[in-house]
Design goal:
heterodimer, A: mainly beta, four-stranded antiparallel β-sheet, about 50% strand, globular, B: mainly beta, three-stranded antiparallel β-sheet, about 0% helix, about 45% strand
């Protein structure tokens, strides 16, 4: 199970730290991702962090403004975003990534949290 | 940058076959997965590695991928299949989602 928290109303220019707590599986074994969905829009991938935090990537839309981190001892994943803009208003999901790669990369998200809503507005 | 393109909507009559395409440059060289999302719910994985179904997903749902197009096929479409469907692939360490297709069961 994945449970996100930390969403809410934030003023433009502000910052937010989202959390995702995992249970029921060995969290430290999995790469984790953040995905968001603006109201009435599609899914947008934001970031991933490998199991040991050695490999981190961001989408261009949040690069330089977002920091992903994890604490395997607490089974927790985090996403901090600063300089928030109206267009950052969205439901933010954490998702567990499965890696079935043999030769060609095979990655997919088999577990998703329920999401936490972030509203950026003055 | 790599992009995945889906039609905004597809309509199908109950019991008929729905096909939802997802196109991208040389998409057949990558593995594609599909997610189903119903209103107010989180996405659910329905197809991975082009044509594999997670446990619990009915065999009415199937996937294929060749050339520039991946396709999610729903046979014997039921009212419960009405949802948004997203394709997804990986490109150079980034995740790419299609824009999503709203499947309407008329």
């Amino acid at each position: 199970q994945l449970v996100e928290s930390g969403g809410g109303l934030v003023q433009p220019g502000g910052s937010l730290r989202l959390s995702c707590v995992a249970s029921g599986f060995p969290f430290s074994n999995y790469t984790m991702n953040w995905v968001r969905q603006a109201p009435g829009k599609g899914l947008q991938w934001l970031s991933y962090i490998s199991s040991g935090s050695s490999d981190i990537h961001y989408a261009d839309s949040v690069k330089g403004r977002a920091t992903v981190s994890r604490d395997n001892a607490k089974n927790s994943l985090y996403l901090q975003i600063k300089s928030l803009r109206d267009e950052d208003t969205a439901v933010y999901y954490c998702a567990r990534e499965v890696d079935d790669t043999v030769i060609t990369p095979v990655y997919y998200f088999d577990k998703w949290g329920q999401g936490t809503l972030v509203t950026v507005s003055s | 940058s790599f992009e995945l393109t889906q039609p905004p909507s597809v309509s199908v009559s109950p019991g008929q076959t729905a096909r939802i395409p997802c196109s991208g440059d040389n998409l057949g060289d990558k593995y594609v997965c599909w997610y189903q999302q119903k209103p107010g719910e989180s996405p659910v994985l329905v197809i991975y590695q082009d044509d594999m179904r997670p446990s619990g997903i009915p065999d009415r749902l199937s996937g294929s991928n060749s050339g520039n197009t991946a396709t999610l096929t729903i046979s014997g479409t039921q009212a419960m299949d009405e949802a948004d469907y997203y394709c997804q692939a990986w490109d150079r360490s980034t995740v790419v989602f299609g824009g999503g297709t709203k499947l309407t069961v008329l």
